[in-house]
Amino acid sequence: xxxxxxxxxxxxxxxxxxxxxxxxxxxxxxxxxxxxxxxxxxxxxxxxxxxxxxxxxxxxxxxxxxxxxxxxxxxxxxxxxxxxxxxxxxxxxxxxxxxxxxxxxxxxxxxxxxxxxxxxxxxxxxxxxxxxxxxxxxxxxxxxxxxxxxxxxxxxxxxxxxxxxxxxxxxxxxxxxxxxxxxxxxxxxxxxxxxxxxxxxxxxxxxxxxxxxxxxxxxxxxxxxxxxxxxxxxxxxxxxxxxxxxxxxxxxxxxxxxxxxxxxxxxxxxxxxxxxxxxxxxxxxxxxxxxxxxxxxxxxxxxxxxxxxxxxxxxxxxxxxxxxxxxxxxxxxxxxxxxxxxxxxxxxxxxxxxxxxxxxxxxxxxxxxxxxxxxxxxxxxxxxxxxxxxxxxxxxxxxxxxxxxxxxxxxxxxxxxxxxxxxxxxxxxxxxxxxxxxxxxxxxxxxxxxxxxxxxxxxxxxxxx
Length: 465
Fold this sequence. Notes:
Elements: E1 2-6, E2 11-15, E3 23-24, E4 29-33, E5 36-40, E6 51-55, E7 79-83, H1 88-102, E8 106-110, H2 111-118, H3 125-138, E9 140-141, E10 144-145, E11 149-153, E12 176-178, E13 187-189, E14 205-209, H4 214-229, E15 239-243, H5 256-269, E16 278-283, E17 294-295, H6 299-311, E18 315-319, E19 326-327, E20 333-334, E21 347-352, H7 367-373, E22 379-385, H8 391-406, H9 411-420, H10 428-432, E23 433-436
Parallel strand pairs: 7-8, 7-11, 11-14, 14-23, 15-16, 15-18, 16-17, 18-21, 21-22
Antiparallel strand pairs: 1-5, 2-3, 2-6, 4-5, 9-10, 12-13, 19-20, 22-23
Helix pairs in contact: 1-4, 2-3, 5-8, 8-9
């Protein structure tokens, strides 16, 4: 073999066919060749081999040596945060809030501690999955598993080696799985799989706070804590329901407004929100679409939606098609609309759509990320799709999910209720839905209903009769 173009005659060659047993080649010769250096060597191996060859000045050198971070399974917890080391202090603040507010036992673990013990110090999402599975198995009380919630505090990207030059650090990497969705060829992210098995109802409720800086982490955690420790205003009586244009690409059109109305009925049936407190913004294909809540394509529907969001809503739900960055085409709501909201009451968002939670794209934050990261507006957490999904499955999930939320359950528990309503045809949604935010967060309660005094007459029966 001859290799050209080395800038130094000090060249090192290894046979790395077995990466666990590399062999340095001792017979190569190096000589000048057209102003550079040429490496020549012979190998009589009967099968193909793999070689690693570099000039000595091109080798990487160790920049630091540090002891492995401690990691044990001796502290059982109900609420586990896995976070980038630079966000640990913020994670501790959230853990302390969950302990005082929810009474949960908590633990914060850094990704580096997991890598040190599970993947030789190297970034590997499989290491995180192995640790969480070990923790779930080990942490038991009275024969029952204690781990209920997993929060992944940090953004991640499918571009592990920055091939696209976005420069995004994999603070907490995504767990990618091939062909997770029958409608989407290729890989999709699934935070569900860090703690659970594919297409299986979760034993551990998972959420992600996809932040890229310590300041963003601080802002989101403060947002969550303030939301849960401050009495809500009159806005908490309202629910906002939005829907995109009907999908007429199929022989039988799919009407997202009708799916939304089924969700409205499920919400009102709980008795926790009144029919008069429902706000609607529905797109229509009809050019003469008119209010009270149908709008043709254009800015009018968007303006109404933004004003409803500014006014505040306990829950907000969208049915329809989406991209990573917005609802519907023509656009009903887009990531670029978030700054124009101004300071607003925070809402819990239920996305019965596709892609809006796909945090693992390495570019600018997707819609549900942007809504969570905005410090004084948008969402406090959302139920979000990480990939493509089927509208019929969304329809199946929405009613039970909404009912559970309005009855005072956590977002993670409500998502479980929605997923439990799916039949096997839509089990992929279990893998591709997650909480963008904190799965242990409880939505703000609605206003208390009126109380009534009831006078019950006392009738004394005369003796002898």
